[in-house]
Amino acid sequence: xxxxxxxxxIDETSRRALADAGLRLALxxxxxxxxxxxxxxxxxxxxxxARMSREALAEERGYLTTRRTTGVYDDSLxxxxxxxxxxxxxxxxxxxxxxxxxxxxxxxxxxxxxHRRKGVAxxxxxxxLRTAHALGYSLAVLTVSESVIYGRWGFGPATFAxxxxxxxxxxxxxxxxxxxxxxxxxxxxxxxxxxxxxARVMASRAGEVGLEPRLADRLIGPLAGTPxxxxxxxxxxxxxxxxxxxFVSYTVKEQGDFTKHLVEVSYLAAATDEALTAxxxxxxxxxxxxxxxxxxxxxxxxxxxxxxxxxxxxxTGVEDHLWVRILDVPAALAARRYETDGSLVLEVEDALxxxxxxxxxxxxxxxxxxxxxxxxxxxxLPVTALGSVYLGHDLARSLGLAGRIRGDVxxxxxxxxxxxxxxxxxxx
Length: 428
Ligand SMILES: CC(C)(COP(=O)(O)OP(=O)(O)OC[C@H]1O[C@@H](n2cnc3c(N)ncnc32)[C@H](O)[C@@H]1OP(=O)(O)O)[C@@H](O)C(=O)NCCC(=O)NCCS
Fold this sequence. Notes:
By secondary structure, the chain is an alpha+beta fold. Helices cover 28% and strands 31% of the residues. The radius of gyration is 23 Å and the shape is globular.
C-alpha cells in the first residue's frame, strides 16, 4: 500500500472548526519520541487503561510509524499532551468472493474527559472521512467501544461477534478426528509463520482485514504493555504434510480448585477446517481445566456441532463488531461478488454527502456493474444500512422491518446476503 496517507495535509474544514474552539489539529511527527509518547499516553488514558511503561512506549513507537497519527492540542495548557487522538491507515478489507478492497482503517478515537462534547470527535471523524475520500478510498471501517457513537458519521454495524463459555467437564468432543500435529512454541520462534497463517485467515473470510505487524504480533503473543504477559501459552497446528495452518494463544488461571482452571483464549487462528477442529479439540480436552472462554468469534462458530452437549457450550454474548462507512457506492459495490444475479436501483441517503445518490446495480455471473441513474428507486436506504448489508450479513430484513430500509427489502436481501456470514475475528 502507498504511504501517501502519512503526509496528506490535515483536513482544512476540521482544522478551522477546532481553531474556532481554541484548539489545534495537527499530524504527529512519529519520529519525535517525546511528541509520540504524549500522544500514546493520551490514547491509553482515553481508553481508560493504565499509563504505559517505557518498554511499552518504545514498542508502540517501533510499530506505529505506518499509521497516520493525528492529535488535537489545547495550547493554553502547560502539558503539551493532546486532548484528542485518532489514527488511520490503509489495509485490505476482505469482501464477499472472497475479494479485497483497499479500506481506510480508523482507531484510537479518544477525547479527554476535560474536553468532551465540544465537537472534537466530530472534527476528527469528519477529517478522517474527507481524507480517506480525497485519497480515493471507497470505504472506512472501525471497531467500537460503544455502539451509539458512529452512526451519526454514516457507519453501520456490518459484522457481529460471539463470545463463548465451554464447560469442559460437561462436554465431550464429538467432532472429527484430526491427523495433524499440535506443539507448543514461543512467539519469537513462530512470528513469521504466525503472520503468514493470520494473512491466510484474513484473506479467506469477508469482514476480516489485512493486519499490520503490530496487530498480527499481539495475536501471536502479548505485547509489552499486556498485563500478565508471562502467562500466555502458544500452541501451533501443522497439517500432516507439515504445513502451518493455525495456532491458539491463551492464558490459564487457577480458580481455587486445582482441577478446575480457567482457560481464556486470546486468539484462535485457523486457516483450514482441520486446524479449527484440532485446536478446539485441544482446548476442550485440556486436563485440570473446567472452563474455556473465547470471544470475537463469528456468529457461525460451529462449536455446537462439535460437542456432545450443546448447552455445555454457551454463547455468552453477541455484539456488533466491524462498522462500515461507504464513501464511494459504485466502487465499493463493484468490488465484492454476489451469490445471485439481479438488478436493483438503490437510493442512498447520506447527510455528509459522500455516498448520496441513486445507483443501478446489475449483477451478472456474480460480478456487479454499478452506475448512477435517474431511474425510479427500488430500494431507499441510509448509508448506514448500506454499510450494514455490504459484507453479506443477514440485516436487511430487520432494518426493513424497522422502517430504515424502504421498498424492495426482500430483493436487497437476496442480492447482498451471503451463505457464510462475514466475520472480523480481532479488534483494531
Ligand atoms: C466517544 C468520544 C470520542 C466522543 O468525543 P466528543 O468530542 O465528546 O464528541 P463530540 O463533542 O464531537 O460529539 C458528537 C456527537 O456525538 C455524541 N456523543 C459523543 N460521544 C457519545 C457517547 N459516548 N454516547 C452518546 N453520544 C455521544 C454527542 O452527544 C454529540 O451529539 P450531537 O451531534 O447530537 O450533539 C469521547 O467521549 C471518548 O473519548 N470516549 C472514550 C474513548 C472511546 O470510547 N472512544 C471511541 C473508541 S471506538
